[in-house]
Every structure is written in C-alpha cells, then in structure tokens.
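Deliverable D4.2, example record:
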Amino acid sequence: MQTFKDRFGCEWTIKLTKSNVLTVLKILDRKTFEKLELSAKIHRVANVLYIACREQAVERGISKEDFHQSVETVLVIEDATQALTNALFKFQKRSYGKSL
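Output generated by the structure prediction step:
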C-alpha cells in the first residue's frame, strides 16, 4: 500500500480499485493536464487523491473540502503524487499485467 501524509501529519493510504482507476486516469489525462496552471493541477491531483482515499475520509468524518485543504500544498502534492504513481504502477501490474 502506498501512503502519504497531509499537512497536518495524518497518514493516508492510496486505494485504487477497478471502479475508481479509470476515473483517476481520466482526471489525469496528459493532454488536458499539461495545459493547466499550477493551482489547477494541484486541485485536480487533490480530486484524484480524494477518490483514492474517500473511504478513509468518510471513516474519519472528513469532508471533501477539508480533505482538499489538508493536501493542497506543493510539498504534500509532491509526496502524494509519488505515492499515487507507485500505486498506479502496482495496480496496473496486479490487475492487467500490461499497460493500461
């Protein structure tokens, strides 16, 4: 399991499933993503992280808005993006054994 910490030090585990991975990949579409300003990229990555951590957020009573506030900093996004990338590679290998 790939993890990252938010700006408050809470640890989050990236959980990718067949039902959410396609949404994640659509949000992170390279052609669209490259054209965005930095703040929009950070917000988009925060959306992806929320999708991958939604169950934990619900269990912890954290709203989507509060989750975004806890991760929308450059340092958190950098660490979380690395964890997300690793999780995507592991998911791909485990589920498909080839490129998505």
